[in-house]
């Protein structure tokens, strides 16, 4: 595997982490600020610098390259596989009346199945229901192929996100990358570091990813009481106080970020599904706890590997970035410490992370986690 990595800050020249060289048919991952991806001259600059066929674009809430976290930049990783292959399919949520489950099913039907080893998802992040998308993908997989990936970001603006394959980045797009090869080894993990506080309550009314009532009370009203003065800073403040949700009949909880609020009906729109009768609790975190969570995620991803990874795809949550603020690179450094300096690292800050819990291959949508996908040939 050959990997060429470069980044470009606004109005600056390209900077390479490795020697620039011509690659043969690489997978090119372009993670960039949404405002940058909307400029035709920026897209032209990327295509001129990386004149390859398989360009995948995704907007971010922060760009990760090596142990660095950038804002308002473009980071590019061009990956030439020696023994393995990949296939890429895309579809748009607008083609399916905003039905993410149908979109997931459609994408999985398109991807070649023979020798499929792993699926990596790069999804629109502002209105695609990530839980439903995963469910649609897994309808056909039946636990045979693991999925990891993330939802695109837009800093803390939450206006719109962009993604694409080959085409110029656009709204509503979901990109599915399939990896194939006998010698390919892919491991993954997801870990948070947030802690619950306050009483455990029950979700009494919800619909998909919209939460209406907790313990029979309007959800937003109850949430605001917990936030106190910080309620005036909603919806941004909600990134610092996500919900810990344990669905009925399940032992493992998932964290759910609140993406938006509706003062009229006192509801909250979350990044993934919040089923009725699930237990729910407020969460908070410290900088040290988040950095330690990233370290835990890296250890879990390395746990049963046979070969050392060559590439690490990191998807971390925008909420973690906001809590860590100036110290945000510490969580990337914690990961690098575990996986090794020689591993090429790229990724982005997201509106939702996708990975199975460590002991199975059924994927879950997570929020507020550090999610790793480690690849070697």
Automatic annotation (TrEMBL):
Sequence ranges assigned to domain FIST in this UniProt record: 25-218
Record keywords, A-Z: Kinase, Transferase
One Pfam short name: FIST_C
FIST C-domain domain: residues covered: 219-357
GO molecular function, one term: kinase activity
InterPro entries: FIST_C (IPR019494), FIST_domain_N (IPR013702)
PANTHER family documented for this protein: BLR0328 PROTEIN (PTHR40252:SF2)
Descriptive protein name: Histidine kinase
């Amino acid at each position: 595997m050959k990997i060429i990595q470069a980044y470009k800050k606004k109005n600056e020249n390209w900077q390479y982490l490795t020697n620039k060289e011509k690659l043969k048919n690489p997978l090119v991952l372009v993670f960039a600020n949404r405002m940058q991806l909307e400029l035709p001259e920026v897209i032209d600059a990327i295509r001129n610098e990386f004149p390859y066929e398989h360009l995948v674009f995704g907007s971010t809430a922060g760009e990760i390259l090596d142990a660095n976290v950038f804002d308002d930049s473009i980071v590019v990783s061009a990956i030439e596989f020696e023994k393995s292959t990949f296939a890429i399919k895309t579809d748009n949520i607008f083609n399916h009346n905003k039905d993410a489950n149908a979109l997931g099913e459609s994408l999985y039907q398109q991807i070649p199945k023979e020798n499929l080893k792993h699926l990596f998802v790069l999804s629109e992040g502002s209105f695609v229901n990530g839980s439903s998308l995963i469910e649609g993908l897994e309808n056909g997989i039946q636990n045979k192929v693991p999925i990891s990936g993330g939802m695109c970001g837009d800093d803390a603006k939450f206006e719109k996100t962009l993604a694409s394959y080959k085409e110029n980045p656009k709204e509503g797009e979901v990109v599915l990358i399939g990896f194939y090869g006998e010698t390919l080894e892919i491991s993954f993990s997801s870990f948070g570091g947030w802690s619950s506080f306050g009483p455990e309550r029950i979700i009494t009314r919800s619909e998909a990813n919209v939460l209406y009532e907790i313990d029979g009370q309007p959800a937003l009203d109850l949430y605001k009481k917990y936030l106190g003065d910080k309620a005036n800073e909603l919806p941004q403040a909600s990134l610092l106080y996500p919900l810990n949700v344990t669905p009925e009949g399940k032992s493992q909880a998932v964290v759910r970020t609140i993406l938006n609020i509706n003062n009229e009906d006192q509801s909250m729109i979350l990044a993934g599904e919040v089923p009725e009768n699930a237990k729910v609790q407020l969460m908070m975190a410290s900088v040290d706890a988040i950095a330690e969570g990233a370290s835990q995620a890296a250890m879990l991803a390395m746990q049963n590997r046979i070969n050392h990874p060559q590439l690490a795809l990191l998807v971390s949550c925008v909420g973690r970035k906001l809590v860590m603020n100036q110290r945000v690179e510490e969580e990337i450094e914690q990961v690098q410490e575990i996986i090794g300096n020689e591993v090429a690292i790229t990724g982005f800050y997201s509106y939702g992370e996708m990975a199975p819990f460590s002991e199975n291959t059924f994927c879950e949508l997570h929020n507020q986690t550090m999610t790793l996908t480690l690849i070697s040939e």
